[in-house]
Amino acid sequence: MRLRAGFFYSAAILICFGALYLLTKAFDLLNKPSDTAVFGGILIVVALIALVPSALHWIWHHHVTPHAYPVRTRKEEKDAN
Question: Are residues 22 and 44 in contact, defined by beta-carbon separation less than 8 angstroms?
């Protein structure tokens, strides 16, 4: 269980720092006078808004869901008792 918690925290920190790095690059592009640079900066910001929450949700799902054990149905649980 500790390994799964360590995976979650390290992955969440990695995603946050990666998103922060990309956000600073996007703001740098937004400060440039070129229209394509501004479009690229806006595109990076929109991608971060869409992808960072979904990545954190995926990591949280794998943190709290036990994938090592098969899912048992109610009938299987009732038959085991």
Answer: yes
Q: Evaluate if residue 62 carries a pLDDT over 90.
A: no
Is 30:42 a contact under the CB 8 Å cutoff? yes
Tell me which residue of 11, 23, 22 sits closest to 55, measured CA to CA.
11
Question: For residue 8, what pLDDT band results from cuts at 50, 70 and 90?
Answer: confident
3-state helix, strand, coil in the chain (%, to 5): 80, 0, 20
Question: What number of H helices and E strands is found in the chain?
Answer: 3, 0
pLDDT tens digits for 12-56? 899 999 999 999 999 999 999 999 999 999 999 999 999 999 999
C-alpha–C-alpha distance, residues 56 and 60, integer Å? 6
With beta carbons less than 8 A apart as the criterion, state whether 15 and 51 touch: no
